[in-house]
Every structure is written in C-alpha cells, then in structure tokens.
C-alpha cells in the first residue's frame, strides 16, 4: 500500500503579506497607494463641488493617514490646506499623548484645527436615555463615537464640505467600529488599507516625503506609530496612559491581516490559513506567537468577520 507522509513546506511566507519587505519596493508601493487614495478623494471633492473637508483626528494611525491623504488631495486640486478642518473631540478616554499629537499634526499639515470637547454633550445624552455614567458598557463607549460623528457631520454642513472617513480595512473586517459612529462618513479613504499597511504608509510619509509639503512631521509620526492602538473610549490609567488597548481585545493586527490576506485573496480554508500562519511565524525572526495564540485569534477573526457583516452591508 501507499505510505502516507507529511508534506514539508519548502516555500517561505512573509508574516506581513500586505507590506513588502524590501525597502525600495515598500517605498514604491506606499507612494503608489497614497497617490491612488489622494486621486480618489480629489475626484470626489471636485465632483461634489465640496469647499472643504472635515477630518476627525484622534492622534492615532488611521486619522493621521486620512489627514495626510486629504492634504495631498487638496494640493492636487490647488486648494489651500486651511480648507481642511481637523477636529479633535476629547472625551473620557482621551490621553494627553494622543491629544497633543492630533493637534501638532493638524497644525504641521496646515489644516484648520477645531477642538470640540464632547464630555458635557455625552453626559446630557446619558441623562436623556437614563444611562449611569459609572456603567462602562457598550452604551458608554458607543455614545461617544456617535456624538463625535454627529459633530463632524454638522461641521461639514457648516463648512460646505465632506466628512472624510478614517476607518481601515482590518477594522472593517473585524467590525471594530461603532455602527452609525466612526463607521459612517461621506467618503472613506482608508477602507481598502489594512492596519499593518496603514502603519507603513504613515511611516513613509513621515520619513521620506518631507519634500512634499510635510516638513518636520517625522517626530510626531514616530510617536503616533509608537502609541498603542486604542479607541480611547474607556477612562485612562491613573498615570494618564491608555488603558483600553485594541489588540488585547481582538488580537494582534499582524495576525488578523495575515488571516485577511489569505482568506480574501486566495479563498483559503481556515485549516490552510492556520498552517501557513504558523509556518510564517516559525520562519519570522520578528514575531513569536504560540500555536495556541494563533488558534485563538483566528477563531476571533472568523467569528467577527461574519458576525459584523451588517456594518459592511450598510456602507
């Protein structure tokens, strides 16, 4: 009879398939993607005769990228960047670090910075619906995200502009956004960019595109890249640092982007993706996820991917 043997994989698999390893290749890819994003937005702004663009900025990666893309689109249209309204909306979970980075970033880019503190409005809303502010449930979190969206939409009406969405592809896959909150915008520029690639894009702009009217933003960008990914909807730690870390709840974006890549691009079965992921981690000198961690987060990926489809349908 035939003897069954284990197939030994001889190919190598990058642990970050969306991000080219080679420096030159990565720079080229990032430049191209940024241009595609900016040109898409340019067309939309011209088509709708929008006078301005409104971007909610948090001091995180996604809103930083959205702001940079919007600046490039305005440059391409020959519009003054002051027509971009960057809105910071501090509330219960905002840390000083992200607040400062959001403000510095907006000013460096040349946008018009507006600050709208939403705490009082959210507390009034809790009173209206009878929610105890000490109860830090999903209602507590989502009320803040929806209040921010309302503020952005209304400022867009004031300025005759569009709200530029900031959410990325990894968040959409996992449904890591508030339905009718940060899930909504008038034109979303990051929806086909996974989180691992957002990081690379922002890094490229900070360090290699200073000539394109982004002088002096590298130190701010470095600190933004260094900040833990967080929606900042729960109060910070007593020392003022971020308490709510996204990757503690949903798992590492490095893993999720790996699952996303092989599931969507190649239609691989969960078993195949699982094997490949373990192989990629074994071959990588950068990451050391255990097999059980990979199994656990892969389950989260598929569960959330299907359960959160309703958010993508609505968009």
Description:
This protein has 315 residues and is α/β, with parallel strands linked by helices. 55% of the residues lie in helices and 7% in strands. The N and C termini lie far apart (56 Å). The mean pLDDT is 94.
Share of helical residues: 40-55%
pLDDT averaged over residues: 94
Shape: globular
The share of residues in extended strands comes to 5-15%
In short:
With 315 residues, this protein is an alpha/beta fold.
Chain-wise SSE layout:
Elements: H1 23-47, E1 52-56, H2 61-77, E2 84-88, H3 96-109, E3 112-115, H4 119-129, H5 138-159, E4 161-165, H6 169-174, E5 187-188, H7 195-208, H8 218-226, H9 246-250, H10 253-264, H11 270-283, H12 291-307, H13 309-314
Parallel strand pairs: 1-2, 1-4, 2-3, 4-5
Features:
single chain; 315 residues; alpha/beta; 5-stranded parallel β-sheet; 13 helices; 5 strands; globular
């Amino acid at each position: 009879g035939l003897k069954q043997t284990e197939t030994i994989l001889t190919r190598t698999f990058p642990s970050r398939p969306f991000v080219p390893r080679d420096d030159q290749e990565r720079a080229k890819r990032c430049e191209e993607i940024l241009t595609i994003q900016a040109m898409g937005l340019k067309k939309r702004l011209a088509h709708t005769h929008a006078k301005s663009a409104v971007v909610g900025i948090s001091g995180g990666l996604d809103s930083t990228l959205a702001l940079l893309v919007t600046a490039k689109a305005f440059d391409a249209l020959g519009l003054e960047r002051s027509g971009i309204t960057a809105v910071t909306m501090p509330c219960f979970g905002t840390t000083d670090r992200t607040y400062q980075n959001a403000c510095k970033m907006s000013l460096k880019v040349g946008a018009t910075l507006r600050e709208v503190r939403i705490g009082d409005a959210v507390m009034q809303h809790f009173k209206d619906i009878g929610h105890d502010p000490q109860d830090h449930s999903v209602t507590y979190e989502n009320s803040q995200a929806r209040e921010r969206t309302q503020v952005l939409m209304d400022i867009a009406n004031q300025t005759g502009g569009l709200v530029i969405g900031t959410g990325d592809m990894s968040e959409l896959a996992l449904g890591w956004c508030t339905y009718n909150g940060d899930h909504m915008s008038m034109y979303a520029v990051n929806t086909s960019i996974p989180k691992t690639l957002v990081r690379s894009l922002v890094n490229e702009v900070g360090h290699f595109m200073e000539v394109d009217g982004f002088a002096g933003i590298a130190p701010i960008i470095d600190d933004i890249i260094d900040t833990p990914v967080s929606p900042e909807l729960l109060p910070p730690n007593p020392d003022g640092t971020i308490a709510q870390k996204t990757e503690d709840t949903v798992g590492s974006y490095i893993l999720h982007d790996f699952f996303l890549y092989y599931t969507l691009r190649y239609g691989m079965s969960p078993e195949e993706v699982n094997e490949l992921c373990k192989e990629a981690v074994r071959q990588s000198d950068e990451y050391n996820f255990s097999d059980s961690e990979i199994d656990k987060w892969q389950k989260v990926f598929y569960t959330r991917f299907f359960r959160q489809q309703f958010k993508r349908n609505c968009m």
